[in-house]
Amino acid sequence: SEALSSQQHKVVAQTIRDYIEQKRLGRHTDRALAYAGEYTVQHMDTTHQVLRATLLEKYEMAVDHGDLRTLGELTPLLQMVQMEKEGVALYLRYLQGAMALEWKEKPRPLNPTNEPMSRAALAREEAKRDAEGPKPPYVQMARIYNCAVQTLRHHLP
Known about the structure:
mainly alpha
């Protein structure tokens, strides 16, 4: 409980993982439960629920803000507390958002240097941009590819 209140989610997740594993292996015998005490068992179950809710909230916030670093920190913890399905759904939402941002054409500023420009200079810059025409589709595909590579590179060893 101290680790949970001090935001040490990895320590709590490891403890919950061990608790769940022991339960799955059938080691929660009547004798073991009596030795641990009813309060301990209730506390572990409550901690599991609170950790799930906390991780889900933090993960959703990271997805909404596009915070890849936080997603990388939280993703391994989700498996420990049996939240794989929720994690996959949220991570797919993050990837869809990241790809959608790359798909949108990012407008270039007319005056990238932010220096004062005359109206004639702005008109020339706009005419020059219009003469270039739309970018070919492979430019967008390259941006999407680069986004996917960046995401994979972040997660793969």
